[in-house]
Amino acid sequence: MNKFAGFHGAAGVVVAVTALLLASCAKSPEATPTGQAAGPAHVPAAHKHADAPGIDWFEGEVSAAFAEAKGARKPILLYWGAIWCPPCQQLKSTVFSRPDFIAKSHLFIPVYLDGDEAGAQKWGEEFHVAGYPTMVVLDADRHELMRIAGGLDLGQYASVLDNALADLQPAQALLDQAASGRALNIGQCRRLAYNSWELEGGAAAAANADLALHLDAASEYCPADARIERARLRIFAASFATRAEADALKSGQPPSAALRARVNTVDEVLANERTAIAVTDALQYLDANFFAVVKARGDAAGPWLARFSKVMDAAAALPDHAEADQLGAIGSKLEAIKAINGAIPAGVARAASARVASVLADRQIPYVRSGIINAVLPIYDLLGQNEQGYKVVQGELRKTATPYYYKADLGELAEGLGRKSEALKWYAEGFAEAQGPATRFQWGAIYAASLLRLQPDDAAKISSVGGEVLGELDGPDRIYRRARMRLERLDLALRKWNTDTRGVHHEVLVGLRARMQQICVKIPQLEAARASCDAFLASA
Fold it and tell me: Which whole-number Å values give the CA distances from 336 to 284, 288, 316, 426, in the listed order?
């Protein structure tokens, strides 16, 4: 349902933590990682990041923050987010405002990097972050120590930072330690259990399988009494093992013996209700492919689903979890029921609808509200209530400082409801209103792709909009990370559009490539962005 599914919670080796709406749109240029000029003076951090006032965000360029970290002998706590991102808004409203988290942040050099700041996308490339939000701990030499996953008990975030401070080895080094047969102590095990392991969207099956093996090894070499940590690692291993076989499963092939064994390890977690409730955020990594493997077990699928549903019901009532995360548990339960049983029972649907209605009836501050809307839309989708979801999102337009975010949602909902002209209207308005170079290119690419789907015969419109969207990349250090990934998708969509019509639109592709080349010639040949730029519609 979420149009940003490829980025929310997926970047580099990334899962995004949740974060918050910036109170001010003021953005100051950053120096690039290669040390180019910083441009205009920076807005003081305290003013620029007034939405998270308790944290002493570093005031200056990102490269200077690492120099500061080296001198102070502190690690970097890097927050990467965007003004429009609902999970970002949730993080700041529920985590960044907590006194325990604020106190712990003083032991780091905290860096706040908005994806629309000049040079931000290039930094994203260096740090392997694409999804908003992402929170990464790095040492002063820019080695990644860990990434912090979202959806935790709110009191756990500060203790996760404690784990990072206690052991400054990179998470990958700890994985390798376990893979070589060397035991992990409880602190190391906890570091791995609460690290964010999400692989980038489209990761190869081999990468998923390899990570599953490493996580399995880590669970085996954790101390025997590390009950929660071992459970988390086993669930993550099962999730990535399922992804490794996703294509085979979709083609009708049975799961491998190794995958069936990993499903059994999740059974063991669910069998201990106390443990299962403590790891509900990890259990929500399990997706429709995993549930399909459970379904293939026949009669055993029913009892499994009953245990899973009971745990998700408990998670939906946990007082120390953000309300949007509670709704996420309801969504996971509904997804499992639909995948295994094929339909959601009327009573379950009514209960979910009532919970959504109750939450939406409450008056929340905008930061909290946007995260809740983001969580209820997948529930409406699973319940077949997208018409209701459409009305709810329309009602949010007057309440938000970034209505363009919701207009992309409205476009997707209208498209799913078969209202093509309405959908195109929303996509167009979203692009027209979007702010910030990275955001404008993202919304522009969404609009251009919608034209290819919904109005494929209007070559003139596609050419005009395509050229305008590409123009958003005309500036220093813009064709990195998120923008590069979007550009590659747009390239594929345009090529398919032309191929589907047997080359009728070849001249449009030639024109768009020429427009892109006007941008490419401004990028030095040795810059990584130049290769990405030159590849756009090459030989099309």
Answer: 10, 7, 15, 32
Which of 156-170, 253-267, 476-490 bottoms out in mean pLDDT, i.e. has the lowest?
156-170
- Please tell me the predicted confidence (pLDDT) of residue 148: 82
Contact 138, 128 (CB under 8 A): no
DSSP code of 479? S
CATH for 1-168 is 3.40.30.10
Provide the residue ranges of all domains of the chain, joining segments of one domain with +.
1-168
360, 438, 518, 534, 537 from 476: Cα distances, Å = 42, 12, 13, 15, 21
Q: Rounded to whole angstroms, how far apart are CA atoms 263 and 237?
A: 10
Record the tokens describing residue 443, joined without a space.
């919304």
Side-chain half-sphere of 405: how many Cα atoms within 13 Å? 22
Say how many Å lie between the first and final Cα of the chain, rounded.
31
Q: How many CB atoms lie within 10 A of CB 453?
A: 13
Prediction pTM value: 0.86
The Cα 102–Cα 54 span in angstroms is 6
Q: State the Cα–Cα distance between residues 396 and 14, nearest whole angstrom.
A: 29
Indicate the burial class of 276 (C-beta count within 10 angstroms; 0-12, 13-18, 19 or more).
Answer: buried
Tens of pLDDT, residues 360-414: 998 777 778 888 999 999 999 999 999 999 999 999 999 888 999 999 999 999 9
Cβ proximity of 92 and 3 under 8 Å: no
What does the block give as tokens for 115?
């994806």
Dihedral sign for Cα 521, 526, 528, 531, please.
positive
Give the separation between CA 356 and CA 88, rounded to whole angstroms.
21
Q: What is the DSSP letter of 111?
A: E
